[in-house]
Structure formats: C-alpha cells, structure tokens
Design goal:
heterodimer, A: alpha+beta, Rossmann fold, OB fold (Dihydrolipoamide Acetyltransferase, E2P), 6 domains, six-stranded mixed beta sheet, five-stranded mixed barrel, 30% helix, B: alpha+beta, Ribosomal Protein S5, domain 2, five-stranded mixed beta sheet, 10 strands, globular, disordered C terminus, Ribosomal_Su5_D2-typ_SF (chain B), Ribosomal RNA-processing protein 41 (chain B), RNA binding (chain B), ExoRNase_PH_dom2 (chain B), cytoplasm (chain B)
Chain lengths: 1004, 266
C-alpha cells in the first residue's frame, strides 16, 4: 500500500508558501486568486552520484557527474542551464543532436515556455523524453532553498529571471557541497553550471552575482562542431527578445467593417465591388473575389486585406489604385507549417507577435520576386454583405491541446482544422478535446472578431473515427451540404398506397390512367445502362417503317405522373435537386419505391413512360439522319431487356445474333453515329475529364481493391447521342410553348482570358497554338494538340482546357436574352434536361412543361411564375455542383484507400504523372491513371523560371552541382503515399518525385 | 478556463508541489466559540470551515420533532468572500441545500439520536474559504464540533476527496484539480471501516473507481489519526484543568477516574 502523508505547511511562512495574484476573466472581471505551494527538501538535482540527493527515493538521476567536457571554456566540465528565451527562440538548435551538453531545465523555464507557446512547450516535452539527450527538470519552485517570491514592484519576468539565477547559484553550491575536498587528495574538479541566456540584462545581473553565464551564440562558438551548430542558430538576435508582455488591451488585428448602408451605397455607386470570396487552397494568405467590373478576379493578399472573409461569403471589395496591383503568388504556403507554433489559447496576446512577423516575411519574400507582367486588380475587403457560414467538418489539432489525458474535464481552447484547405483554422473551446482527437467532428463558426486572428466556433457533434468509412461518408455529405436524411412520413405518404404491388392498370378507355396514353407495349424497347443500375430512367427503340423511313424512340420514366406539384414529395425533391452518387452509396432524390421500382423502366414489366419519337428519312446509307417528324406522347411501355453497355456492345458485334432486338440496337447505333458526326461538324467539343472507376471487393465490405480508368464503348455514345437529341427536341418544344418560363440548360462560352495561361504554356512548351475563337475552332485545335510520343498528352490538354471553361447551368427562358441560350460544349443553340427525371429535379419540371405543351395536362400555376422557376433552378444548380464535388471527393477518398491497400501489399506506388503547374517551390502533377492531382514540394533550393514554366531541381545532395529542369507537360514519375497529418489525422496524399530525379532522399 | 497548469507532471509533482498521496496541511481548532455547545474550525490547505453545534435542545417547532429520537438540523452559510470572485449565495441555493443534506445524511447514522427524544441538534456550517474539498472539510469539521459538544457518536466520521488523473489516483484535491479531473468524496467510520457517504458528480471509469475508493478509505484512517490526536490533546487539557481545579478546591485527587479509553496507546 502506498504511504499517505499529510504535508505540513508552516503558517508563519505564508508569504513564501502562498501565492496571491489577480486574474482577469474573459468577460473582463478581475478575480483574486490564492494558491498554496508546498516547499520540500526532497527535490533532486538529477546529477549522478550526488551524495546530497542520494537519500531521495524515486529519483533516477540522468546527468553525468562530470558534466560535459567538450566545451573549450569549461575544462572542468559543465552543465547548461538555459533561460526561457533560449527555448523560445533557439528550439531548433537545442533539438539538434549535435547539441549534446547535459541540460538542466528549470520548472520556472518550463512554465514560462508553456505560457508563451504551447507548441514549443510540446516540443520541449518531447525533447525531455528523447533518449539521446541528457536532460533533467529541476523543480526549483518546490525546493525550499530555490523558491522565490515576487517582490513589490517586480515584474513577473524579473521574478522569473531572479528565480533562474537563484537556482543556478544553488546548483553551483550544491555541487561543491556534494564533493567536499578530502585531505591528502587532489582537489576534486567541480563542473560549472552555465546559465545560457540571450537577455543582456539578465546576464549582467548574473555576472554581478558571480554566476557563470553566456549568450547562446558565444556558447555555440566555443562548442565542438560550432560551424554546423551556428547554422541552426535562429536569426532572432538577443536584442529582439522582449520580456513577457503584461496583460495589455487586445489589439485589433483586422480593420473594422463598414456599415451596411455604406456598403450598399458604395456598391451602387461603383466604388465598391461585390462578389463571392474564394480562398486560395494553395496559399492561405491569398484569396480572390471575381467581380463583374474586371476580367480578372480581384486579388486579396494578406490577412488584413482578406479581412475575416471565409470561403463563399458575399463581400464588398475596394480596389487599390492600379499602381499597387500585384500578381498572384506562385508559392505554396501551408497554414499548418507556417503557423505551427501558434497558440490557440485566447489569453495570449495576438498583436504583433512572432507569427505575424513570420507571415509578413513570407509575403514580402514572395512579392519581391514577382514579375510585373501578370498584375491583376488588387484590393481589400471592406465589408461582408452576407456570411455563408455553415457547419464544417474538422479535425482537432493535437498540438494545440493543453492536456491530452482522456480523463481531463477542463475546458480547453484548441484549433480545429477544417478538411477543406480553403478554410482557416477555427478556434474552439471544449471540455472533451482529448476524446475528440482522431475523430472527424462538425464545427460551426460563431463569430470572428477583429481582435482575434482566427474565427471562433463551437463543437456540434462527432462523426466518428477518422478514416472509418461511415465517418468519411457522412463528413463528405456534410461538407458538400447534401441533404441525406431519410424521407419523412409526409413524403412517403405521397407514394401510391399499393406500394410495390402497383401495376399499370389493364387497358380500357374508361380508366383515367390510359387517357391520352399511347400503347407502346408491343415495341421492342430495351434499356442500356451501367452495370448495377437500378434507377433506369431511359429506354430506347428503333425500327424501320414500311415506307422506308426509320423510327426511333426514347422513352423516359414518367416521374411527373407520381410526383405531383405542391406535395411534400415535390418540395423535398426540389430541395434535394439531384441524386448524389458516391462510390458506395447513392443518396436518392426520390424515395426508393419510385426511383428503383415504379418509375424505373425495368425489363419485363409494364411501366408508364414519356416518349419522344422521331421519324427519320434516313435510309441505309445516307450520311445524314434527317429528321422528318418528332412527336411527344405519354405512353405505356414494356421493356424487353435491360442491357449493360458491355452486353449491348457484345450483342451488337455478334454477327450470329439476328433477332429484332439486336437489329434495333444496330439501327440505333447507325443513327447515333450519324448524329454524332453531325454534332461534331457543328463544332461540339470532345471534352475529357479524369474519370476513374473504383473496384470494390464486394458490395458488403466495400473495400476498394483497385482503381482503373473508365472505359468508353460505342454503346455509351449511342445512348448519349439519343439523350442529347431528346433533350434538344424537348427544349425546342417547351421554349416554343412557354417562352417565359421554360426550364432550359445552357453553357456559356468561356471568356477568352480564361485560356490565356493554357495558350501561353502550350506555345512556350510545345509550340502549339490553341484557337479559342469558337467551340468549333477549339475542338479543331484540340485535335491537333497531340504528341506522337505521349498518347496521353491530348487527354491532358483536354482536361486542362475543360478546367478553363465555365460550368453549365439551368436557367429560366424568360430570364436571359435569347442569344445566350446556346450550349457551348454541345454546340447547340438550345438545350434542356429531360432524360433523367428520377435523379434530376430540372427534368421533372421539363416533364411537366412538356406534358402541358402537348395538352396532356394543364401546367401548374407555379411553373407559369418566372420568379418561382428561377428560385427552384437556383437551388438545383447549387445542388448539382455540390453533388458533382461530393462524388469526386468520394472517388478521391477511395483512391486513397486503394493506394493504402496497394502500398501495404507491395512496394510503394510509383506512377507516371504529368506536370500541370509549376510553383516556386513545387510542382502540381496529375496522375491520369488514378485521376489524382497532387503537389510535389521541394524543400531544397530551386531555381524557378515563371516565364517558361519550368523549375530546376538539384539532382544530388551536394549543393547545386547538377540540376534537372522540370517543366509543365513533362512526364515525371512520382511515388504516391497516403500519410496522416500528425496533427489533424487527416489522410493526405503525399507525392514525391522519383523521376527524372529521385528526390525521395532529399525531401525527407 | 483553459488552464495552463499541469495537474500531475511527468515527475510526479502536482501543481502545488505535493505528490500524489500527500494530503494538504490540516489544522484543527476546537476552541470554544460564543454560546455554541461545541465548535470546530478546520483547514485543509486553503479551505477553511467553521462548524458550531447547538444542542441537543428543545425544538422551536414541536411539529418537526420525533418522539423517539433527536432531529439533526444542518444549515450552511457560504461566505461571499470565500472564493476569489465575490459571489453571494442565498440560503435557498440548490447547491447549498444539497451540501447541507449531504452532511445531514452522513451524520444521521452516526449520531446516537435515540438518546435524545423530542429534541433537536443544530449544526451550523460556515464556509470561510474555499479551495477544493469543501464537503470533506465540512464533514470533518462537523465531526469535531459534535465531539466538542459532547454528543455521543458511534465513531468519528472522516472524509477525504480523491480523484484520478489519467490512471494515477490522487488525494485531497484543490479547486484547480477538482475542475479538471473526475473526483469523489468518501466519508468513513474508521473503527468499523463502514462508509457513511460516497458522492461523485463527475464521470469516472468503473475500473478506476475501486482503486481510488480504497485509497480514499486509507486516507480516511490518516485523517482519523490526526483527529484523534487533536481531540485527545484537548480532552487532556480539559481534564488537567479539571484536575487542578479539584485539587485546589478539595485537596483530594485520589479517585479521579479518568476515561480509560482515552488513555489507550495509539
């Protein structure tokens, strides 16, 4: 059993044993705090074979009795006792394994470091635990001889300095007492205890008291290997060390916002510009705001100019005079590395401290090297018109924790690092920080005062362990704001009461179901979809007519029969906007009963459909599929077969199959080829996007096994062509009938400036020209962008060109000019979405409008109202964008998992990649095989040539003997690994250059 | 507040220089205060509690008495100046009522109330200074006050708080520690080893409970020793004083039979 004792504290010594101080709370209240302190004589000095301390149990001395004999100034051996400022400024030096003297760390010093910077304190603690260092913590405040009391008129800093000096001199006498001279023997050598400090005043006082002391520089100069250690000395000179600041009024770090009235007036008069704020994910000190006045977005450099805006906020910007315009940075600046020593606790002063200085340095360094050519409007944010804050998925930054013990219940201020790189760290106060480490959590931003460097938020809930599939999936949905709750009862009540027993009623004129419906059950209709598809919303047929013409039909699930306007199901579908496809999950827009059963055009059952039927005059060999007639009708169909793309392809290519269904597919294919040719001739773009497919082990375990690029077959294009044709035909029809409210889709031609950079790169690197005058010209010049040696080069250029374009959007026909209806990518004057009503809400609207246009049903009043349609489409556009991003992020996550899986089994993954961007200290690469984009950063000196988009990297460790140049479009080899960020537990894809130069050893 | 103080550092020191199993300085003062029948002031470190006991006496309201035993009436007053932040608590405060009822239920099985039917024993607890372990101090002071009032007890009740930091148990927590780590208060009857109170307001892992509970019981014995020493010293002083008185007035002193139990070796 342990020994329980009562520690006695003499009442008479209350001055020494009690500490009394005043504390200011967060609310500004002043509290008097009284703490006691128990002084003891059993605090060990930590030196081996010290006779005085031998009696103290449980002390395991770690310092050698002779000290270190390596320093030239101390032939008798010495111990180093560093002051606080040494740890604050020269941590790198002390951490170096070249710096080997035994170190005595005083409790006073530990506490001061802890108060000044938690991350540094954590480094110090790691240092104390390191095996290769001889360190000892001396609890001078608990030892009765060395405890000091703050005197009247003495600053806390002076008190601490005095405590440090007192401890130093105590050590000195302690060592000599422990080794008394023995008569007849040589005088024992007594090692020195050297006070290391960069504080000149402290040194002076120490010298007066006869204590050995030295500045760090002077000490290092006399040490072994001084030349190498001197390099590690940080530049902060001794004179820059300021004493611990006493509580000063919090300084404003950001300019105040202007009042709302001023903002509105400013925007109206054109002095201010309004736009959405976009943070630069590569450089947290930079952002931009696209505004209509300028071609290029307004650049914002530095924290003050970004003035507390967060990704997506609508802000008002003031643009600087043209002489102050700057070019965007070309360096990767990572928040976590630059600010790793920043402190989460609010009690710290956040004024003009070390971090701010460091940041300013980064910015200056960048600006100095900037070429004047690419200047763009630069400005600052003067106000926020609308905040766009929501909940963000974050990780707790482990280095910002004050206590990481599971049992700790104390409230702590910690940093939460959002998963998205475009967001700043969020400061949050929580009592459960240790339990949240390694979890994905949801954090909401509450406010961002101008005295606080970081926004403040609160913890909403935990999503689960990092990298568990459930947590990642949910965090993805939250991050992209996808509504994923199960459908409520009110919505499910809108379904047919028969449930999945619902069938098309038998044909009779009396039945309202058959009113105005054509019976197409005898047609040889089939559907072609990706494997495993359950929500089949389109089916096709084609047949030669007796008169020699050809009839082709597209049959779309009749969703508007089930989803009626003004029902809870309709409003839910409108709010969801689209079905979201993740790798292992589908978040439906409509309840599964409709989506995968009643509406889904499954084979062998009768289903209601909305059909578009063309009659073409094209005979066997005519090159053009001339459409004679198109009609739209509600119908009842019975699909004869559901094919996958592959099955349909095999069936078509198999000459032995000659049944009517196969012939139908062949006929469809012939027509599709002609349609495609016609479209290409009109100038449609053949774009490329990096699409990959994830192989899952099985549906249940959903462990990714491998990644491969998606394969495109002839039949894919077959279906695509007919869907395009149906959409175009429907668009024409509804636009004719409802010129004010027709739901259409357009793709604006990109501004020419978007292509400038790509054109320049292509010209300089490959001598190729890109004609962007029209989509046709672009398509033609893209076809010429080939490299015989690099078949993937063309795809790469297409991907990069696609990124220069705008995204397509839904719009209301009456809201924009007739001349802007065009679809740039498809090169068609008018377009809509009609063919996937199960998974897109815009299609449901198009269905309703088409039904009204053909006189099947009257149009609901809301679809006559332009503002209503505009509002609904606004939501759908946003959801559509988010769904795309969520899908992509999901693929990315699984690619990461697959990579990890591969790396576990075999050697590190090395893939071919193309350089797509060059930064001052790194290159952006694209791995086409994995559809993965990544960043390779160089830690060593490089020479960067912005004009020619190239960077020279030294090939060997020895200085700049030989260099290799890497430029945009170069093929390189990269090693890909997924590693966890130490602090945030966030899985990060880390790429390292392997070829043409192997940097694995250098960047480590 | 995100405190920057380490509860227990790597070298086994707590923030005030104690080690895990070291209790804070205890002082006990049993001197007479005013008209109280018994009173005691106890300090555990910077926590200071004064308890005055009145009774057994006739109850003010007969309706609240029992025909077969005495009623314990505990009233608690927390001085506004007892914490750093001046804060006035009125008597209806839920925390205070809870505190009072904890003391009451702790002592009900210990005080031999059946000896005093239809009467009332008033216990007034004054908290003068707080720095953690308030309940422990309140209970210990009440025990001493009851002793000094000469009310028959089955045993001295000794209370100790214990907490657990990560996996290391600790004893006698300060406010700073109480705010950070899960803790419980145990009151024991040292002779029989029975427990009259265990209270815990924080969550604690079930596996840790046994350790810390046992440890708190051990610590209760240590406090008991301290209490016994104080009580005996006081009694000896009183008895000596009586001795002197008897000697001087009657001149005899042969059969002053002192309480044998009081002289048993420790």
């Amino acid at each position: 059993m342990v020994e329980i004792t009562i520690k006695k504290r003499p009442r008479a010594d209350a001055v020494v044993t009690q500490r009394r101080f005043f504390k200011k709370t967060a609310r500004g209240k002043v509290i008097k705090v009284l703490r006691e302190r128990y002084l003891r004589d059993d605090v060990s000095c930590g030196i081996h074979s010290c006779r005085q301390c031998a009696s103290i149990e449980e002390s395991k001395p770690t310092l050698p009795s002779s000290g270190s004999l390596d320093h030239s100034s101390f032939p008798n051996g010495h111990f180093v006792l560093p002051d606080t400022n040494v740890f604050l400024a020269q941590m790198d030096l002390i951490e170096s394994n070249l710096f080997a003297p035994p170190i005595i760390v005083l409790q006073t010093v530990m506490e001061e470091v802890r108060h000044r910077s938690l991350p540094l304190y954590n480094r110090l603690k790691a240092l104390l635990k390191a095996d290769d260092k001889q360190t000892w913590v001396f609890y001078n405040e608990f030892r009765s001889e060395t405890a000091v009391v703050r005197e009247e008129e003495e600053s806390p800093n002076d008190r601490n300095d005095r405590g440090i000096r007192k401890a130093t001199s105590w050590y000195h006498t302690h060592i000599s007492l422990a080794r008394p001279p023995v008569r007849g023997q040589a005088k024992p050598t007594i090692p020195d205890v050297v006070l290391l400090t960069d504080d000149a005043a402290n040194r002076q006082k120490a010298e007066k008291e006869g204590i050995k002391c030295m500045s760090v520089r002077k000490y290092v100069e006399g040490a072994k290997e001084s030349s190498r250690l001197l390099d590690l000395l940080s530049a902060v000179g001794s004179n820059e060390i300021e004493p611990t600041k006493t509580a000063a009024a919090r300084q404003a770090l950001y300019p105040e916002y202007l009042s709302t009235a001023t903002l509105v007036a400013g925007v109206k008069s054109g002095q201010l510009h309004q736009g959405h704020f976009n943070a630069n994910p590569y450089n947290y000190l930079e952002g931009n705001v696209p505004v209509s006045t300028f071609d290029k977005p307004v650049l914002l450099i530095g924290r003050e100019n970004m003035n507390r805006a967060i990704q997506g906020d609508v802000v008002a910007v003031e643009v600087f005079p043209e002489s102050e315009w700057k070019a965007p940075g070309d360096e990767v600046v990572d928040q976590e590395t630059t600010l790793k020593d920043d402190d989460a606790d609010e009690s710290e002063e956040e004024g003009d401290d070390i971090e701010a200085i460091r940041e300013a340095k980064v910015l200056r360094a960048e600006q100095a090297k900037k070429a004047a050519a690419e200047r763009q409007p630069t400005g600052r944010i003067v106000g926020v018109i609308k905040r766009n804050w929501r909940s963000y998925v974050c990780h707790i930054d482990s280095s910002s924790l004050t206590s990481s013990h599971e049992t700790s219940l104390s409230q702590q201020t910690v940093f939460a690092t959002p998963v998205s790189r475009s967001l700043p760290r969020i400061r949050l106060r929580t009592r459960q920080a240790p339990a949240l480490l390694g979890q994905k959590i949801l954090v909401t931003i509450d406010r961002w005062d101008n005295t606080s460097r970081y926004p403040e938020g609160h913890f909403v809930r935990a999503l689960g362990k990092v990298e568990s599939k459930e947590a990642e999936q949910e965090s993805l949905l939250l991050e992209f704001d996808v509504p994923y709750r199960p459908f409520g009862k009110a919505i499910l009540d809108c379904l047919p009461p028969e449930g999945d027993a619902w069938v098309v009623p038998p044909k009779s004129d009396a039945n309202p179901e058959w009113r105005d419906r054509e019976d197409l059950r005898d047609l040889l209709i089939c559907s072609i979809d990706p494997p495993g598809c359950q929500d089949i919303d389109d089916a096709l047929h084609a047949r030669p007519l007796p008169n020699g013409n050809v009839e082709a039909g597209v049959h779309i699930a009749d969703v508007s029969r089930f989803v009626l306007p003004d029902t809870p199901m309709d409003s839910e579908a409108a709010a969801r906007g689209t079905t979201v496809y993740l790798v292992d999950k589908r978040i439906d827009m409509l309840p599964a009963l409709l989506g995968t059963n009643l509406c889904s055009l499954r084979p062998f059952v009768e289903r209601l459909a909305f059909s578009v039927i063309w009659v073409s005059a094209a005979r066997e060999m005519t090159p053009e599929a001339e459409i004679v007639n198109v009609r739209f009708t509600k119908s009842v169909i019975a699909s004869k077969q559901a094919f996958t793309y592959e099955e349909a392809q095999i069936r078509k290519d198999d000459p032995t199959q000659t049944d009517a269904l196969t012939e139908g597919i062949r006929l469809l294919n012939r027509l599709a080829v002609q349609l495609r040719a016609g479209r290409m001739a009109a100038g449609a773009l053949n774009l490329a996007s990096p699409e990959v497919k994830i192989h899952l082990e099985s549906a249940e375990s959903s462990d990714p096994v491998d990644v491969e690029q998606k394969e495109l077959r002839e039949t894919n294009s077959l279906v695509e062509e007919f869907m395009l044709l149906a959409n175009i035909s429907v668009a024409r029809k509804i636009q004719e009938t409802f010129p004010q409210t027709a739901v259409l889709r357009r793709h604006m031609p990109p501004p020419r400036t978007n292509f400038e950079k790509l054109q320049d790169v292509l010209k300089k690197r490959r001598g190729l020209a890109l004609d962007v005058s029209s989509s046709g010209a672009l398509a033609a010049s893209l076809d010429k962008c080939t490299d015989a040696a690099e078949p993937a080069f063309n795809t790469l250029v297409r991907i990069m060109a696609t990124r220069c374009m705008l995204s397509a959007e839904y719009f209301c026909a009456g809201s924009v000019g007739r001349d802007t209806f065009g679809h740039y990518g498809l090169a068609t004057p008018i377009y809509t979405h009609f063919t996937s009503p199960i998974r897109r809400y815009a299609d449901v609207l198009a269905h309703r409008q088409l039904a009204a246009a053909i006189g099947h049903a009257p149009l609901h009043a809301s679809l006559h109202a332009k503002p209503h349609v505009e509002r609904v489409l606004g939501v759908v556009n946003r959801r559509h964008r988010m769904a795309q991003m969520a899908g992509r992020a999901s693929v990315e996550f699984y690619v990461g998992l697959a990579l990890q899986g591969r790396a576990r089994q075999g050697p590190p993954v090395v893939e071919d990649a193309f350089v797509i961007r060059v930064f001052r200290n790194g290159v952006g690469v694209f791995v086409s095989k994995l559809g993965l984009e990544g960043l390779v950063t160089f830690t060593r000196e490089t020479s960067f040539d912005a004009e020619n988009y190239q960077i020279s990297v030294p090939t060997t460790a020895t200085a700049t003997a030989t260099t290799t140049t890497v430029a945009v479009f170069d093929r390189v080899k990269v090693q890909i690994a997924v590693e966890r960020d130490k602090n945030t537990q966030r899985g990060k894809v880390k790429m390292t250059l392997v070829g043409p130069v192997d940097l694995r050893a250098l960047s480590a | 507040m995100g405190s920057r103080v380490e509860i227990l550092n790597d070298d086994g020191y707590r923030s005030d220089g104690r080690r895990q199993f070291e209790l804070r300085d205890i002082t006990m003062d049993l001197s007479q205060r005013g008209t109280a029948d018994g009173s005691a002031m106890i300090t555990h470190g910077l926590t200071q509690v004064l308890v005055s006991v009145f009774g057994p006496r006739e109850a003010k309201m007969r309706s609240q008495t029992f025909h077969d035993r005495a009623v314990l009436n505990v009233e608690v007053n927390i001085a506004p100046f007892s914490t750093g932040e001046r804060r006035k608590r009125n008597r209806g405060d839920k925390r205070i009522l809870e505190f009072a009822s904890a003391i009451k239920s702790t002592f009900e099985p210990v005080v031999q109330t059946n000896l005093y039917p239809r009467s009332q024993i008033d216990i007034y607890v004054h908290v003068l200074q707080q720095d953690g372990g308030l309940l422990q101090a309140g209970i210990n002071a009440t025990t001493l006050a009851l002793v000094s009032a000469g009310i028959p007890l089955l045993d001295l009740v000794c209370a100790v708080t214990g907490g657990v930091h990560s996996t290391s148990p600790m004893l006698d927590l300060t406010t700073l520690e109480e705010n950070d780590i899960p803790h419980l208060t145990v009151a024991i009857m040292p002779k029989t080893g029975k427990i009259t109170l265990v209270t815990m307001e924080t969550r604690l892992h079930a596996d840790r409970f046994a350790d810390i509970f046992k440890l708190a019981c051990e610590a209760g014995q240590v406090i008991h020793k301290e209490m016994k020493r104080t009580v005996r010293a006081r009694t000896r002083r009183l008895v000596d004083a009586m001795d002197l008185g008897i000697r001087s007035s009657a001149g005899t002193g042969e059969n002053v039979d002192k309480d044998v139990a009081m002289n048993e070796p420790e």
